[in-house]
Amino acid sequence: MTEEANRSLRNQTFIARYGVTPAEASHDMLLQMIEDMFADGLVTEVEPFPETDKEFSKLLDILRPLDANELRKKLVISGWLLEPYGPDKMRCQECMYFLVHKRWCDLPELNLPAKADWWCRLWRI
Ligand code: SF4
After folding, report:
1. Which of 4, 39, 75, 110 is spaced 20 to 30 A from 67 at the CA atom?
2. Domain membership flag for residue 11
3. Considering the domain boundaries, does residue 17 fall inside one?
4. Structural domain count, the chain
5. CA of 51 to the centre of ligand 1 (A)
6. Residue 122 Cα, ligand 1 centroid: separation in angstroms?
């Protein structure tokens, strides 16, 4: 299947289930899409955690070209979780990219709704 056919199938799948693609979805609908993916068994790349700026930038370089409809890929690459992570219970709430009132991850390469108790490996303070 070509890249274009893959894209079309992916978008059709979103439209069949939600009536819209992620690029057109409201905040609440995007939250629902994310939660549904995990309910359907999505596993993301939580390791390795990017310890250096170089490792962090490398992940951003992978995420940057993805469009808004590549939601699954964004979640996988960022190591997204719907719960706090690690012994320190790291979570979006304390991350510098989290907009508390908007419940939004403002990291441009993600640019997605998030909940205070969620986490991803691009977490920064
Ligand atoms: S970068 Fe990750 S941890 Fe930080 S707000 Fe965004 S999703 Fe949450």
Report:
1. 39
2. no
3. no
4. 1
5. 15
6. 6
Helix, strand, coil percentages in the chain from 3-state DSSP, rounded to 5: 45, 10, 50
- 14 in contact with ligand 1, CB cutoff 6 A: no
Residue 16 forms part of a structural domain: no
pLDDT value for 3:
85
20 in a domain, yes or no?
Answer: no
120 lines ligand 1 (CB under 6 A): yes
Amino acid making up residue 67: D
Q: How far is the CA of 28 from the centre of ligand 1 (A)?
A: 17
Work out which ligand 1 atom sits closest to the CA atom of 96: 4
CB 92: neighbour CB atoms within 10 A? 23
Token pair recorded at residue 28: 């609440």
pTM of the model: 0.95
Question: What is the span of the domain harbouring residue 106?
Answer: 26-113
